[in-house]
From TrEMBL:
Superkingdom, taxonomy of origin: Bacteria
Domain DNA methylase N-4/N-6 as annotated: residue spans: 42-90
InterPro entries referenced in this protein's UniProt entry, alphabetically: DNA_methylase_N4/N6, RM_Methyltransferase, SAM-dependent_MTases_sf
Single Gene Ontology BP annotation: methylation
A molecular function GO annotation: DNA binding
Keywords: Methyltransferase, Transferase
One Pfam family per UniProt: N6_N4_Mtase
Protein source organism: Marilutibacter maris
EC id: 2.1.1.-
Protein name: Methyltransferase
EC top class named in words: transferase
Protein family: Belongs to the N(4)/N(6)-methyltransferase family.
Length: 354
């Protein structure tokens, strides 16, 4: 790949300039020996292609500031969050020695990100079960005991990233599927599902790294794991298929369910002038607080080809009305074979009191 990104779906990052290498003495002072330090050349093409000079590139899992180093070389402002204070200090030292500037903050974006703002989110996510030997900082995702807790942590951080990212800004996360104790964890796929629920999915790029290759015994599936994915997402509103959505709303009424339409589709209808403004991203329905009717509607929607989710987690009816306490709405999506989208966000008229 040259200085501009082409449409190749995979590429091999250039070898890093020795100048950018993590200095041996800094590596030696890290509690994990800098084993998870990435490549500057892995990040540079994404910085160049998905941000403009002078803009802010945020890495919520900053590590040794490799992303911020790439941002700085490319004339962007780097902003990073690192949960391990010792490592954050080492990252600052790394940049100082190179005479490069960036803003590295201690802690997690979800709890320390009030003042943050970014034009591009770019990161390599922590790896579950990597045998972290550094400090046991609260919120350190390397130390999550179970995979579900680890995924909840990823969701928490990317949800915060969404909050501080400019409209239309990209969120790009590097991840790979992993094998621990002979058991495969589909970390990249699971991260993609989390990102799917927060951003609009665009593409993935496969990044390949040179590694030794060995022959395999017959029917053994293991690979040398020499690739990872750059998952490319954008903070952008989806646009629903208006005609299919209107047809669906009529069908819901005809099936005997009551609701009140509010939000962007209601406003769009009132304006009565589809050429003005942005098309709605969803149809917001207020439903009566009636558990039986709610479950009946959910079952009906499933029959009509809808997928149900609470903040990206798939759910099946029955779903407890209490879900509004934590999630505010239940999402129902139907994606057609022509690429169309009908999206309902279902909320309750009078949520049960906490
Ligand atoms: C894969 S490493 C990033 C490496 C980085 N790209 C580099 O090349 O230096 C992930 C980093 O996330 C940090 N981390 C883990 N949980 C975190 C959290 N909740 N908030 C912020 N940083 C976290 C880890 O300490 C680790 O330094």
């Amino acid at each position: 790949m040259g200085d501009t990104m082409d449409d190749a779906s995979w590429f091999q990052p250039r070898t890093d300039n020795a100048r950018w290498a993590l200095p041996a003495d800094i590596r030696a002072r890290d509690g994990f020996d800098g084993r998870d330090c990435g490549w500057v050349e892995q990040m540079r093409p994404f910085v160049r292609h998905f941000s403009q000079p002078g803009q802010t590139v945020l890495d919520p899992f900053c590590g040794f500031a490799t992303t911020l180093l790439a941002a700085s070389i490319e004339g962007r402002h780097g902003l990073g969050y690192e949960i391990d204070p010792r490592r954050a200090g080492l990252a600052r030292e790394r940049l100082d020695r190179l005479g490069l500037q960036a803003d590295i903050r201690d802690g997690e974006l979800a709890t320390h990100g009030e003042q943050a703002r970014a034009d591009l989110g770019l990161t390599s996510v922590p790896y579950f079960g990597c045998g972290w030997t550094g400090e046991p900082a609260a919120g350190q995702l390397y130390l999550e005991q179970d995979y579900a807790g680890f995924l909840r942590g990823l969701r928490r951080v990317f949800h915060s990233l969404r909050g501080v990212l400019a409209d239309d800004g990209y969120c790009i996360a590097m991840a790979e599927n992993i094998v621990i104790g002979g058991r495969r964890f589909s970390l990249a796929w699971d991260l993609a599902r989390i990102l799917d629920s927060l951003f609009v999915a665009h593409e993935e790029r496969v990044l390949c790294y040179p590694r030794p290759v060995s022959p395999l015994p017959h029917a053994v599936a293991a690979s040398n794991r020499s690739h990872e994915y750059a998952l490319i997402y954008q903070k952008r509103r989806e646009t629903i298929d208006l005609q299919a959505t209107e047809e669906l709303l009529r069908a819901i009424e005809a099936a005997g369910f009551t609701f009140r339409l509010y939000g962007s589709l209601a406003g769009w209808r009132e304006a009565g002038e589809p050429a003005s403004g942005r098309p709605p991203a969803d149809a917001d329905l207020l439903l009566p607080a009636d558990q039986a009717r709610f479950d009946a509607l959910l079952r009906w929607l499933v029959e009509q080809g809808f997928e149900l989710s609470l903040w990206g987690e798939p759910v099946k009816p029955p779903v407890d009305l209490q879900c509004w306490r934590d999630h505010r709405y239940l999402r129902a999506d139907r994606r057609g074979r022509d690429g169309s989208l009908v999206r309902l966000d279902l909320a309750c008229v009078s949520p049960p009191s906490a």
